[in-house]
Amino acid sequence: MAAAKEEKEPMNFVHKNAILCETVTKENRTQKLYTNYSINPFKTLHVVAGKPNSKYDSEDGEEDPHFKKIIERANQEPTKKFAFPQTEAQEIGWVTRPLLEKDRSDRRLHFPHQMSEMTKYMETFWRIEEAKKINTDANTA
Fold it and tell me: Is the pTM of this model over 0.85?
């Protein structure tokens, strides 16, 4: 059986070059050269001040408006950056406007804080207890 199998020829330079050319062609078909480089606004910058006696480092430093715009946009909250939530987690709390405007005169939707006799009594009791505690702490110190 082993004699029936033909042995493969070792790869020569022509075969290796053909494989390399095919690989490069496939890579060039899918790759795109990116030449538009800019600063990463999400990475912290370490600004180094100029030398105080240098004539090249003046106090009237030039400000790049494009760079400033990118940094300001990166520091905004997501609701101001994007019209819609970008992730599922952002959907929670994305719309923060109340569905109805508050109308304190409408008794159907406004329930002001009301105290019963028992809650008034207990609130007074806890205030007195707190005052006693503060007085004993002040006297022991």
Answer: no
